[in-house]
Amino acid sequence: MTTPPLMTVAHVAALLNVRKKTVYAWIKSGRLRAARLPGGTDLRLRRTDVDAFVADLFEVSVPPAIPTKPSTASAIQPPDFFALGRSRAG
Fold this sequence. Notes:
Elements: E1 6-7, H1 9-16, H2 20-29, E2 35-36, E3 43-46, H3 47-59, H4 81-89
Antiparallel strand pairs: 1-3, 2-3
Helix pairs in contact: 1-2
């Protein structure tokens, strides 16, 4: 089966075995080029651009993952219910 010269985000995601969300993140960050079709919202990617992107992944030792925002959940301390009870009892 030959790959068409223009591919959808879903096709690229399936080809690279990643989620569509990851492909959109690569496009948004500028790591992967895409074009919007006239009159629509669909994106298309050139097969040559995808091939170049994959080739760069193997030449550069930087992983392709998009950095995530640091979690703020660990900074939130749960309330000390025992201390709250002592302050009301006293």
